[in-house]
Amino acid sequence: MTSPIQLYKKAYTGLSRNSWYLCLVMLINRSGTMVIPFMTIYCIHQLHFTIIQAGYIMALFGLGSICGAFIGGKLTDKFGFYDLQIFALLSGGILFLILGYQHTFLTVGAGAFVLSFCNESFRPANSSAIAYYSTDENKTRSYSLNRLAVNLGWSVGAALGGFLAAYSYHSLFWVDGCTNILAALMLLKLIPRSHIVKAVKNKTAITDTSSAYKDTVYLVFIGLVILFAGCFFQLFTMQPVFYKTQWLLNERTIGFLMSLNGLLIVFIEMILIHRLEGRRHPLNYISAGVILVGIGFVLLNVMPPNILSGIVAMLFITFGEMFSMPFMNSFWITRTNNNNRGEYAGLYTMAWSTAQVLAPTIGAQLIAHGGFSLLWWIMGVICLVSAIGFGILYRKIVSSS
Question: Where in the cell is it found (predicted)?
Fold first, then answer.
């Protein structure tokens, strides 16, 4: 029987040095992720916005993300992934510092939009960089390694952010901004620009279409991702408010529950991906994961309001995330080539950014008209519809192959 140590060793073996460097940069960046998890609470309890206004602020984060992802994807294919990553990290860091000094609905909304525009342009470039430094055999694991860094940083940031928020919300903006800037400096140090080799144009298309916007299967996939992501983002927007206002949990407990998500991913996901990769089609895993996330949200309606119930719900949501998101990355990357990867990555990022707009806006409206109970039931239904859609898409691909 393979020991746990051997499982971990096999899961991490064979990844390139630069993949690890990108992981370290991402870890530094995400360890300062404190503003987004507490932004809704900050808007309501510190700035005294209504829950509708707080939802609009989070929607503006998402709207800026859509624009940033679209432009970022185009610029990545045109100029390469390296410079865009540096610009996004540096500008995002400065804008976090500026946003912390805004106090009106108009200035916070404008700051949120510009910040997310710059921040989100990083993601298509970073996705292309991961593919550039990985092989066909370890692409899914390379993306999972990156997710590990994101979630380890998220767990640190959310937990520390819970403590800092109890004393000063303003400190969250400073920590988030400074870690962005530090990440940019580390990227410059670890992977100098001179080490980037310009990719040779690949005249042999890997897919039947050269454009993500003409790939019908991919567009259907993107639509289903938006449905799922619109539910998933409730974890970071309305679920913390639910814990605070309905279950009466304090910021430290909320921070712990948020960090639990990241810690579970850090310790489990790479081994899970190592054992599952290549055994079934990615869409099968995605469908199962989406259902688990839906169950996690529904459990918030049926379990008693305490920290143990929060842990159980988080377990379902997190395992659903681990089954779905790594394989979403492996699905879209197989449909790309060196000449269109930024466009595919940009469209995938735009899907999540669109959901980031829809999630808080729709979530706030549902809460205002039917309470949190209505929100969690509807999220469960949407996840079920999305899971069925991924299953139908799988059968379409198999039947046409």
Answer: Cell membrane
